[in-house]
Amino acid sequence: MDKQTPYISFSLTTHFSIVLQTQSDPNMTQSTEFGKSAAVAVSAAAAAAAASASASSADCSTDVLLNNFQLKKKSYRVLLHGQRVVWERLQRPTKSAAHNETVKTPLPDDVPTTEQQLGSNASCSYGEHSHILHMDDIISVRRGDTKQASLQPPDLEEPPADAKPTAQFLTINYAERLSKSKVDCNRWQLRRITFYNADAYIVRQWELQLLARLASSPAGGQRVRRLLVFINPYGGRKAGSQTYERYVRPLFQLAGIDATCITTQRANQIRDILLTHDLSCYDAVCCVGGDGTVAEVINGLVFRRIRELQLDEQRPAYIPRPSLPVAVIPAGSTDTIVYSMHGTADVRTAAIHVLLGQRRGLDVCSVSNSRSLLRFCASVLSYGYLGDVAAESEQYRWMGTKRYEYSGVKAFLSNRGYDAELHLLEEPLEPETPQSPVSVCSEPPSVCYANCQRCSIASSLQEQRSSLFPTEEEHKEQHHHPKSLAPTASLNHELQLSASETALLRPRPSTLPLQQSTPAAYGSDLSLRSGEQWKIIRGNFFMICGANITCACARSPNGISRYSHLGDGCLDLILVRKTTLLNNLRFLLNTAGRGGDIRSLPFVEVYRTRKFNFRTLNAPQENYSIAGSRQPIAQSNSDGINSEYSSWNCDGEVVTDLDVTMSSHCQLIDVFMRGPHSYSKPRKLVVSSAPTTPASSSDNVYCCCKD
Ligand SMILES: Nc1ncnc2c1ncn2[C@@H]1O[C@H](COP(=O)(O)OP(=O)(O)OP(=O)(O)O)[C@@H](O)[C@H]1O
User: Fold this and answer.
1) For this UniProt entry, which residues form the secretion signal (predicted)?
2) Residue 266 in contact with ligand 1 by CB distance below 6 A
3) Contacts of 493 (CB under 8 A, 6+ apart)
């Protein structure tokens, strides 16, 4: 190490070590106000060794690094503090300050002594002009001898740790969420910042510390190294391959992701590969395509797990959780799954979420008829209008996305309503409401945002919930011992759960084997267990939707089911009664706008449930398909739309069964997402010459419970 630039390690407390640099350059010299109990001064070599040791230790997150760097030829003080990198422009010393050589530090006066104390309010304590970058948002860190070299993707072959460092440039690639307006606050973009320091030892130390912190942070530990990518070249505008090459591959390279790509050659190929191939060398599965492609991946992974566990594929006793998480890159026509996950169908945003590694559990619904499990649904299962659109539009795929508009008008005009009977067990909405259609509630239910409380409660209760459900034997026992009938009640008391949390703890019908899946079986079983009655609704419907997620898309930014949550284990059943043509039009316009709320329409009912059963009235039994074939069952009229029965639209695919049960499985699949954000005005930075940076990623995240 250069003797001109010795390191001084200040040990403030047993929990802290601050490494400061002193240099002959007055602009880069600093003393400190921190040194309350500073035990000091180690040799340069010892400090470097200590630093690299601490970098490799898991507990390195308690260290603080503070150095001066140059950024665009301006001097900055840069601090690595817990999970944050903070940098602040060094001001030229004023006359009064020149006498007092102490430079203002970005840490608060009252320096907390432990990381816990620094905790969540640490970001508010930095200087007003500080730029704060959260570790969760860092994609990669690389040093280089030149700025250009530091911009290259990470080098897999690192020089030995004891080699003399030469690199003076340190580039941090990170993701930033753009918060431009209420309608554009969910796009993320890639940013980079390059710091320069004449001392290569400091640069190396920073890189080591940053990498160690990234690896030990919860999100960093989840980052993907080996990815299996399926590209559907057929979906949307048939631009899946170009989308991947142009926008996604460079980002994966930058993050050092080793991606194996397969371009599909036929429908259902993804599912077949996932069912039969060895996937042990992959950390995750990624698909580039629309909702149909995502559904193929989810179906493939869940059925694979069912096979691995040797469960009955037609009537599994329970639905197991696949081990691999799923990444989705939008390249379809509507891309509602991606839009609902991120609040945008922007390709870069979706790719950036894969790089950042943060995952959330996504509910997946199973769709079954009275005889067997048919498939899994990630977005919406819809009968009537949307079912007709799906069946119709397949014939006009050559039109591209216009086929939906054409088929939409045709299906709308020919819709005479469909007779149906539905059975469901209603779940209360948030806030707790009477067991009634949502349309009569005074307060709107919560919207699912990043850090959604409702979903995180559902996630944290997963373990407890599984042990709460009685097996068939336990269930019989409970009938003989009525005191044990309310395990949730006693648990609620122990855990002091709120009403909405209690609702999430309710026993679920989906734990029953599928052979008991007739409405009658459910009705009697659950009435006995929870003391609730199944609701039976009959009528003539323009459309029936079981929405697993909001189903938002560019055309319908709030989605058809605005208040659906991504991972609460519930689905929203939306019933649109057949009334007048004008009312049907009102409904469609309402879903298209940002301000609309279908719950305000008198002919629309929304029920939150974990499971519902549907059957047509007077349906001929012998026409039920077993596996949900794509063929229409009953004869269609001359327009291709059957006037008496519709078909189901399941994630854009056509299912023709007329006796269907849809059940939600809480957070069955892990997907790379944080959830959409609500708009909040970005912090204004006074120093305009400085690069703009995001507030801490967690600062951008709000609770779901506001609209
Ligand atoms: N090479 C291929 N040739 C034909 N069909 C394919 C091929 N690869 C995949 N498919 C099928 O194409 C169908 C449509 O794909 P996808 O749903 O991704 O696009 P989309 O329908 O345009 O988008 P969205 O569902 O978002 O509206 C899927 O059912 C998928 O199984």
Assistant:
1) none
2) yes
3) none
